[in-house]
Amino acid sequence: MYISEKEIEIRYAETDQMGVVYHANYIIWLEIGRTKLIEDLGFTYAGMEKDGYLSPVTDISIQYKAALRYGQKAVVRTWVEEHGRLRTKYGYEILHEDGTIAATAISEHVVVKKDNFRPVSIKKIYPEWHAKYEEIKKQVADGVRN
């Protein structure tokens, strides 16, 4: 399966009073990872928005495993976990530089028309994007890794 990777330099402003990365920053990193994955596949969120569509989060789940701290680097690994007619689920791992898992997550998204927020099928508006996700989904089912 195709897994995108994005390195994050942890900034002081991303930490809390305990000196660890504040939990809400992980959600921002998931967005960075998802955007990188989409760009790696040849598409862009900006292009989608320009065309009059959005892809809001409908569900998100994060499991925190090992704290990250200022001065460290994290790696966000992102892949397509599931892709259906209207919903796409992305999987994530956020890793320490040594490969230790700091967090795992799943986010679920739909594509909607910008003007009325009605869901639309990505297959209908972006058949090539849908085809790429179907290819990745098949790889996930077959247990293939990049």
UniProtKB/TrEMBL annotation:
Molecular function terms, GO-annotated: hydrolase activity
Asked if the keyword Hydrolase belongs to this entry, the reply reads: yes
The chain's coiled-coil residues are none
Note the CDD domains from the entry.
Answer: 4HBT
Show the Gene3D superfamilies listed in the entry: Hotdog Thioesterase
Q: Which keywords annotate this record?
A: Hydrolase
InterPro entries (UniProt xref): 4-hydroxybenzoyl-CoA_TE, HotDog_dom_sf, YbgC/YbaW
Q: What is its EC number?
A: 3.1.2.-
Please provide an example of a Pfam family that matches this protein in its UniProt record: 4HBT_2
Q: Does the keyword Hydrolase apply?
A: yes
Please give the NCBIfam families that the UniProt record associates with this protein: YbgC/FadM family acyl-CoA thioesterase
PANTHER family recorded for this chain?
4-HYDROXYBENZOYL-COA THIOESTERASE FAMILY MEMBER, NOVEL THIOESTERASE SUPERFAMILY DOMAIN AND SAPOSIN A-TYPE DOMAIN CONTAINING PROTEIN (0610012H03RIK)
Q: Which family does it belong to?
A: Belongs to the 4-hydroxybenzoyl-CoA thioesterase family.
Tell me what this protein is called. Answer: Thioesterase family protein
